[in-house]
Amino acid sequence: MSNLCVAHRGFSSTAPENTMAAFRLAMEQPYVTWIELDVQLSRDGVPVVIHDFSFNRTTNGEGLVRETNWSDIQKLDAGSWKSKEYTGERVPALSEVLDSCKGKVRLNIELKTQGDMYPGLPAAVIEEVRKRNMQDEVVFTSFEPAALAEAKKLAPEITTGLIIDARPGDLLARLRQLGCGFLSIGYTNVDKSLMREMKNDGIQVMAWTVDDKTIMKRLAAIDPELMLCTNRPDAWHQALQKSSNQV
């Protein structure tokens, strides 16, 4: 089992998702080679790392990310909902995450948007990545094809990838049309024929989100180049060790 381990929103089974605590914990594990995270824009245009469009679930605040200024976002507690140990964790700016991860781990940055909710999101994220010359250390992914098209137009040198939890017959055609070199797909849609089709076209595939060790091993057996995205990097490591012991 040699499949790359992607920490979903950081080491999010233990630390609060999409916080520096979760990213630091993931980076402390030598077997974590990628981190997946979500980016939106504050009201005043700062790229911030958070999954939901509102603050309600993962912070002590309320309201929409896009209607809140960065100065107010910085005051929110994004850790105590997970456990008292993480009280005071903040919603990080993308800039802070990039500075911490540069040269240590690669990043799957999801452009978290729907329709024209964040017309300036791709440009803002690209600016932060280019400032640090990290174009080869990231991929941009999204459920929203328009965001991917805009990102590819503005930064053709950065790999982009469609996120999907289905397997339509025209999937490869969609990826080609968008210029994607990456596919982020719900793990139940993965089989040998998908991997063969994507690899033949030079497209890297990541399966999400897998926390069960038995399923991890089953997916790993399909193809060693399939990336495995998990909330539980520790489970990935246990599955790896078990596989090694069986050899």
Automatic annotation (TrEMBL):
PROSITE patterns: GP_PDE. One of its GO terms (molecular function) is phosphoric diester hydrolase activity. Gene3D superfamilies: Phosphatidylinositol (PI) phosphodiesterase. Residues 3-240 form the GP-PDE domain. GO terms for biological process: lipid metabolic process. PANTHER family: GLYCEROPHOSPHODIESTER PHOSPHODIESTERASE, GLYCEROPHOSPHORYL DIESTER PHOSPHODIESTERASE. This is Glycerophosphodiester phosphodiesterase. The lineage of its organism: Bacteria, Bacillati, Bacillota, Bacilli, Bacillales.
